[in-house]
Amino acid sequence: MSDKKETKGRADNVDRLVSHRLKMRRMMLGLSQNDLGKAVDVSIQQVQKYEKATNRISSGKLFAFSKFLKVPVAYFYDQSDDSGNIIGSVLAEEASSYSSDLK
Question: Which of 2, 21, 26, 53 could pair covalently with 11 via S-S, beta carbons 3.0-4.6 A apart?
């Protein structure tokens, strides 16, 4: 239960990667934050918070973004750009934490 309390509302490296990819795709298509917000029924302020990783993106909202932006959900987790190996480092940290808890 403590894991849920620690992560609720806080963006981690994966959240920041997803936010970065969301903004990158929106800009690639020449869309405004307002265009994106209207398409998925959120305010421009909420889009800004998603893109800055201030607010975490729910799985349902991520699915809506992927449909509107015409990319698979996996696109948001792709690390082939300059994002670095974020997911790999997060998994390594979690594995280390898990093994420490077992001792």
Answer: 53
Interval 34-62: pLDDT, tens? 999 999 999 999 999 999 999 999 999 99
Q: Residue 69's CB: how many other CB atoms inside 10 A?
A: 19
1.10.1660.10, 3.30.465.10, 1.10.260.40, 3.10.50.40: CATH of 11-102: 1.10.260.40
- Residue among 37, 72, 69, 82 nearest 55 (CA): 37
**Token duo for residue 74:** 């996996």
Q: What are phi and psi of 43, to 5 degrees?
A: -75, 160
Percent of the chain with pLDDT over 70: 68
